[in-house]
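so my prof wants the structure for this chain in the tokens format not the other one, which i didnt know existed until like an hour ago. anyway here's the sequence
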Amino acid sequence: MFFGPFLAFYAILFFALLAGLFVMLEIGLINYAFGALGLPPELALIALMTSLIGSYINIPIAEIESGEPYLAEIVSAFGIRYRVPLRYARGATTLAINVGGAIVPILISIYVLSHQPAAILPGSLTAVVVALVVHRWARPVRGLGIAIPMFIPPIAAAVTASVMAGLFGGPRHVDAIAYVGGVIGTLVGADIANLGKLRELGAPVASIGGAGTFDGVFLTGIVAVLLA
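here's what i got, hopefully its the right format
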């Protein structure tokens, strides 16, 4: 299933953000940040670009009976406008998993933890805290699914990771803790924990890591590392 998670204006902003990161990479400002994650900076930018492009790809995994379909073409949540994929409306909600907002970040998290096993425990605890914070802010949106304010996940991840790093041996793994905890915590707190609410929303497609959640996951990959 191919559709954009938000209007083209926001996609342009995210691509501009990536272009800015590329410039900073070239002048050496973020080499340390990505190096701390165990990712070569060039590979990290490729991963972020893949995540952004993959946000348009959703893999269906189940169908959920839902109520009356919500037929508005555009919905708004926390100041962001999203386009509802009405062409996939079938009288039921298709539950999917987003490639850029879920699969790619999970694979990056596995890679990071495999190279920094000391971050597994604090990263797991950070994910629990972030999940609780994100779940508190997550809101069901008719026609869309679950939405969260985009800056809540990265800020929660960075603050919690700093605390966890202090409790578990200093700041050596703080960037890895922030990324893994932020990504997993956001997916669990926003999407997984709210699957039971999808029947009431009349959304044609509800994508784990997709519209409503993708921007928070994507920014976690950038902001949490830099803040931490």
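also thought this was worth mentioning. The helical segments are 8-26, 31-36, 41-54, 99-115, 120-137, 152-167, 174-191, 214-227.
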